[in-house]
Amino acid sequence: MADGGGEPDQLAGERATAQFDVDGMKVAWAGSRHAVEVADRMARLVASDPVFRKDTRTMLSRKELFKDTLKKAAHAWKRIVELRLTEEEANLLRLYVDQPGYVDLHWGMFVPAIKGQGTEEQQKKWLPMAYKFQIIGCYAQTELGHGSNVQGLETTATFDPSADEFVMHSPTLTSSKWWPGGLGKASTHAVVYARLITEGKDYGIHGFIVQLRSLDDHSPLPGVTLGDIGGKFGSGAYNSMDNGVLRFDHVRIPRDQMLMRLSQVTREGKYVHSDVPKQLLYGTMVYVRQTIVADASKALSRAVCIAVRYSAIRKQFGSQDGGPETQVLNYKTQQSRLFPLLASAYAYRFVGQWLKWLYTDVTQKLEAKDYSTLPEAHACTAGLKSVTTSATADAIEECRKLCGGHGYLNSSGLPELFAVYVPACTYEGDNVVLLLQVSVVLHLVARFLMKTVAQVATGKQPVGTIAYMGNIQHLMQCKSAVNTAEDWLNPAAIKEVFEARALRMAVNCAQNISKAPSQEEGFSELSPDLLEAAVAHVQLIIVTKFIEKLQEDIPGPGVKEQLQKLCSIYALHLLHKHLGDFLSTGCITARQGALANELLGKLYAQVRPNAVALVDAFDYTDHYLGSVLGRYDGDVYPALYEEAWKDPLNETVVPDGYQEHLRPLLKQQLKLSRL
Ligand SMILES: CCCCCCCC/C=C\CCCCCCCCCCCCC/C=C/C(=O)SCCNC(=O)CCNC(=O)[C@H](O)C(C)(C)COP(=O)(O)OP(=O)(O)OC[C@H]1O[C@@H](n2cnc3c(N)ncnc32)[C@H](O)[C@@H]1OP(=O)(O)O
Ligand SMILES: Cc1cc2nc3c(=O)[nH]c(=O)nc-3n(C[C@H](O)[C@H](O)[C@H](O)COP(=O)(O)OP(=O)(O)OC[C@H]3O[C@@H](n4cnc5c(N)ncnc54)[C@H](O)[C@@H]3O)c2cc1C
């Protein structure tokens, strides 16, 4: 029992009110019983290892933090080798270590870039070294002057046939590579994206493997300037990563270090393009965007887990005759802010699982030289990355506010979680730039369908996640049949209005663009509307994948019922938030909007007794959560109190600086008061 009002038993009471089987929900969340078991084992392995402690991380200096990251990475690798962990286990171990570091770029981008863009011979040469960490690689694409506009990169790779070498050069300040993680201090090699110039002609951006540092003493090779780009947002957080700067002064590399799966330069300097689509140059980004969507649910579920547990512990107001105050989780406002985020965590989890499937499917097709699904993979990964990361960043901040003042303490875990997460809205493609990519696809399809609407039944039908657009005749005219609040529980009713909204917004944009003097001008003028149409399309994908998940066999008493409620909450809170879209496109009436809101209130009340159990199903250890507010035992107040004393400021009772700055001030005031 905690001192002064903290009531740890309260969480036990909350758990007792759950109306479903938490173990069954853990399986639904993780994807299989096996996945629960592996995740649990890896989480405990990390939590029990003192090297992986992270409770003082936000108090470390940048240098200490970076060294701590090197230590953790080396120790993690040692454990992976000693225990012969599988790839699945190693990935989970990395997740639970919970500290960004150079290994992420080595495994997450350097290795995939070589796999995707290197020839078989190049893979045979470089991958075994990378797999054993004999070399450490990063992904050096972004420059000081250009990140989003990849075609605008300035670094050059000029072929010199006399030496059979490329000369890597940074011709301007703005061509300095800037941002690549792991580049600043750790990497020995990089996949560098540069303009290929041969026979006096610029063939645009290509990838090259470049050694940057000596494998003997780690010093930069001649002609290579390297460093870290400086401290970043927040304490701890992404500062564990050595995002770096790189400049080349006529650095020579052998010709066979150009990644040559997409195109080649011959010994004589001839440029040859293979039959592989040039967009595969962007393949590594597609891969990482897909992992970022899966990670959104992890970050969001962590924040929600902290906020739900703490909201069940925290009490304010409502005391009658000296009785207990009200748990803040019982306030309808708290529920209406928190439960949509809980539902979003589940929604992103399932869409992330689906996207992983889509990516695997596309990869298999690419291996069989079927490139037809590449545009779908690009649009889905770009759109979902954008929508899920933006919403997750906002949601983490909302969870901080939901935890009141204590949420602002580092010990709540939320400030660091926000700081480490928020760059996901920018890296791997700025979220607006990525949504514009989705809107290009939507615009093309909408324009095509408008032209061919008469013969749509016989014409070429859109497939994959844009298949619904083929139903244009119905979706442009349909009116929702919802008549009672409970009618909104019908997934078909929800799907229809989300499809109609997305299609009508895309068609409206296409019609307005067609009125502009040129398509380019129209596209630019209407880009804010196009973004909204893209968001509507992506939200439809998430809702649809949640609904499809519920059509699967989901074992465990009450599990499917809870997920059905969460699915309805996810969809209806979006409907409520974007009511303007649904009304202005005529998909629903104002009354139907009000009915959706009425149902939302009822669903929140139904979720309330299950809320703590629904976050327990994420199966997070206290180590991974890293939050005194989100502790499993709910013993929040003693932990908060204890944590405060660990701050370096409390190492002495009288602070450093007292003699120089406080004492003279206080003495001076004394003199003044005596005057
Ligand atoms: C310390 C602890 C340690 C523990 C240790 C444990 C040990 C290790 C064990 C395990 C470890 C595992 C670790 C794994 C972790 C993995 C996680 C990885 C984390 C990553 C962290 C992220 C870091 C960030 C990296 C970056 O940011 S890299 C840089 C990213 N940059 C961008 O995204 C740039 C965005 N811009 C663009 O993508 C493009 O420029 C564009 C906006 C798309 C425009 O392209 P452009 O060619 O200029 O013009 P378009 O005409 O628009 O396009 C042409 C054409 O191409 C199509 N297209 C475009 N993109 C793609 C694509 N990606 N795929 C396919 N097609 C594409 C486009 O649609 C056009 O098509 P059409 O011509 O048909 O219209
Ligand atoms: C933490 C972190 C890690 C990173 N790691 C790596 C890495 O490992 N390797 C690497 O190569 N890069 C890395 N990056 C770089 C990252 O990929 C780029 O920052 C990102 O792609 C955005 O590009 P930018 O910085 O040029 O933004 P800009 O494009 O300059 O964006 C600035 C603003 O302009 C807007 N804008 C840009 N273009 C358009 C347009 N066409 N229409 C409308 N609005 C537009 C954007 O929405 C944004 O609001 C990292 C970045 C961060 C923050």
Give a quick precis of the structure:
The chain has 23 helices and 13 strands. It is an alpha+beta fold and 675 residues long. Flavin-adenine dinucleotide binds at residues 105, 139-142, 146-148, 179-181, 238, 243, 423, 426-427, 429-430, 432-433, 436.
User: Could you name the CATH topology of the domain at 106-276?
Assistant: Butyryl-CoA Dehydrogenase, subunit A, domain 2
Provide mean pLDDT, rounded. 95
Main CATH class of the domain at 106-276: Mainly Beta
Shape: globular
Total beta strands: 13
Strand fraction band?
A: 5-15%
Poorly predicted sequence stretches spanning 5 or more consecutive residues: 1-5
Q: Provide the CATH architecture of the domain at 106-276.
A: Beta Barrel
Total DSSP helices:
23
Distance between the termini: 54 Å
GO molecular function: acyl-CoA oxidase activity; FAD binding; fatty acid binding
Main location: other
Keywords: FAD, Fatty acid metabolism, Flavoprotein, Lipid metabolism, Oxidoreductase, Peroxisome
Subcellular location: Peroxisome
Annotation keywords:
9% strand; ACOX_C_alpha1; three-stranded antiparallel sheet; peroxisome; flavoprotein; 675 residues; globular; disordered N terminus; fatty acid metabolism; binds flavin-adenine dinucleotide; alpha+beta; Butyryl-CoA Dehydrogenase, subunit A, domain 2; binds ligand LGZ2M252; 53% helix; FAD binding; six-stranded mixed sheet; single chain
Detailed description of the structure:
- The chain has 675 residues and is of the alpha+beta class.
- The protein has a domain at 106-276: Butyryl-CoA Dehydrogenase, subunit A, domain 2 (Beta Barrel).
- 53% of the residues lie in helices and 9% in strands.
- It has helices at residues 9-16, 22-30, 33-47, 62-82, 87-97, 102-117, 120-131, 283-313, 332-367, 374-402, 414-421, 431-452, 472-477, 491-515, 519-525, 527-550, 559-577, 579-584, 590-607, 611-616, 622-625, 636-644, 658-674, and strands spanning 137-140, 156-160, 165-169, 177-178, 189-198, 201-211, 224-228, 244-248, 251-254, 263-265, 271-273, 315-316, 326-327.
- Strands 1, 2, 3, 5, 6 and 9 form a 6-stranded mixed sheet that branches. It has a 3-stranded antiparallel sheet with strand order 4-8-7, with no helix packed on it.
- α9 packs antiparallel against α10 (374-402).
- Keywords: FAD, Fatty acid metabolism, Flavoprotein, Lipid metabolism, Oxidoreductase, Peroxisome.
- Pfam families: ACOX, ACOX_C_alpha1, Acyl-CoA_ox_N.
